[in-house]
């Protein structure tokens, strides 16, 4: 009898847990391996994985609780020579797991804020910290707008990323593109100081390059997309690298 009651309680709590969470499924459509990183914002505990390897064609799913807020990104050119390091998106943990450390810019970021109890989720793709890998996020299920947010183009192309923003690998190829804020650290590009509101921080000639390539992604901090990507009723999410 005790054990029946116990398993009943366990079943209910499992049901509750499934109903409250979301599953994020990562797919790597790039022709190269990526090492996704996960970072839970604020004081929350980190997810069950904070970093893993994803070969070309590979998929992996991670559960996120509700409510939750955090970000995902891809690392590239990783190797383990007396410590795990990556050419782009490195989190400097020295391991495949990032353990609460975020991406060192430049990196394309996927940001999600999951509402409690099936409320309004927010999600986006951001080039505010620059670009390294094309990525998209699409809610699965849910209700409302639930549009795909995507940065599908390769901004690393030498004809796209201005030379003053380029990050080059040891072979001389462009492996990432800095945002102007990351490259120059000036208030007008970082929307700080006299430029710290949407009105006083207009797009710049640099943010426009990101906007042209990836109009669905944030090109700079006050890019006017704050209410564009929303979904209700607890969708799952599909994140695709090189969509
Ligand atoms: C952007 O504008 C700045 C300041 O006017 C200029 O120095 C720079 O060359 C421009 N860059 C591009 C890529 O247009």
From TrEMBL:
SUPFAM superfamilies: Osmotin, thaumatin-like protein. Coiled coil: none annotated. SMART domains: THN. The keyword Flavoprotein does not apply. It comes from the Eukaryota. Gene3D superfamilies: Thaumatin. CDD domains: TLP-PA. Residues 1-21 form the signal peptide. The keyword Disulfide bond applies. It is found in: Secreted. The gene is LOC100787191. This is Thaumatin-like protein. It comes from Glycine max (Soybean). InterPro entries: Osmotin/thaumatin-like_sf, Thaumatin, Thaumatin_CS. Belongs to the thaumatin family. Keywords: Disulfide bond, Secreted, Signal. Disulfide bonds join 30-242, 78-86, 91-98, 146-231, 151-214, 161-177, 181-190, 191-201.
